[in-house]
Amino acid sequence: MPVAAIESLILLLSHSPSSTISETLSLLAHYTNILKSSVANPIALSAGTDLFQRYLISSLQSPQPTYPGNKGGRTRGGDTTDDFQAIRHHLISNGRLFAARAKEARSQIAHVARQFIQDGTTVLTYGSSRVVGAVLAAALKSHTYFKLVYVCDNTTTSTDLPPTLPSPSPELPIAVIPPSAVAHALSQVSMVMLGAEGVVENGGIISGMGTYQLGVLAKAAGKPVYVCAESHKFVRIFPLSQADVGGLVLQFNESAEGKKGQGTGVETGKEEKEKRRIDYTPPELITALITESGVHTPSAVSEELIKIWY
Fold first, then answer.
1. What is the side-by-side strand order in the sheet with 205-208?
2. Mean pLDDT taken over the chain
3. Sequence-separated (6 or more) residues with CB below 8 Å from residue 288
4. Whole-angstrom Cα distance, residue 194 to residue 214?
């Protein structure tokens, strides 16, 4: 989702009628807000689009050679028509470079993370992370024999696998279990590998509902939890509890008449249900974060955010 949103903003830049830098940045901010409001969980999208805008502003502030239309030595602040066309071309080129790097991040993470998967390893995963799927595919490609345990959510049957994961094969036997069997299965697991919708400032992650309880169980069982996430998913928020990320709001039933479907903690309405299908996993439950820049402890996220943003 973040990469798709960034590509949408690049397309907007290439077709926008704006004629000044200020107008262009305002246009980006306006349509970024529209994109955020169009999805139930804008955390991952916000991380990518905010970083993209920051990247464009940094590219404007960095020293550049004189533009073709700037014969009089006018700097960017002049915003003449010829100068601005060159600046806009510069912005679009840098934007496309940013999107290309974001796409390459997945394969770079796969190259790093596949080294954690050795012959005879049993990996447990949950959700439909494309990054985790790429890691598993890379491990298979390197002729590593391992097993996979996939935890399905409550909306799937016991035979469903997300399309982001490799299919079962003699090289990759896969067991699919319900969430209620996780504690029982952890004794047969070597590690837990997860994706994330967002990585927050303290090194925790925001991901699909159920990730937090999986982290708690893995910690109790002494199993390492590795999170694979691109750096454009690092988001500048610092949640202190589940309530800070819009988690479940428990709804209690007080009458027998409305017993069916009540008391589940999920409000009616598709959007409300989707909005609450995320939770926050604190950093103490995470062993390491694997990004395109390498392997980091959760405590190193703040330093990485400083490098990315400043």
1. 198-199, 205-208, 278-281
2. 80
3. 224, 226, 227, 295, 296, 297, 298
4. 10
Sign of the Cα torsion 191, 152, 204, 35 reads positive
CA 221 to chain centre: 26
d(CA 95, CA 283): 32
- The tens digit of pLDDT for each residue in 159-192 reads 578 888 999 999 899 999 999 999 999 999 999 9
CA distance 271 to 40: 6
CA nearest neighbour of 98 among 230, 296, 289, 236: 230
Report DSSP letters for 209-237, one per residue. TTHHHHHHHHHHHT--EEEE--GGGB---
First to last CA, the chain: 24
Instruction: Grade residue 68 by pLDDT with cuts at 50, 70 and 90.
Output: very low
Nearest-10 crossing angle of helices 130-141, 81-113:
50
Percent of the chain with pLDDT over 70: 80
Torsion angle defined by CA atoms of residues 163, 174, 111 and 109, in that order, rounded to the nearest 10 degrees = 50
Instruction: Tell me how far apart the alpha carbons of residues 227 and 205 are, in angstroms, rounded to a whole number.
Output: 8
Judge whether residue 256 has pLDDT over 60: yes
- Decide if 213 contacts 284 (C-beta within 8 A): no
Query: Is 227:199 a contact under the CB 8 Å cutoff?
Result: yes
H-type alpha helices, 38-143: 43-61, 81-113, 130-141
Closest CA relative to residue 207, chosen from 219, 191, 194, 190: 194
- Listed range (93-107, 209-223, 227-241, 271-285) with the worst mean pLDDT: 271-285
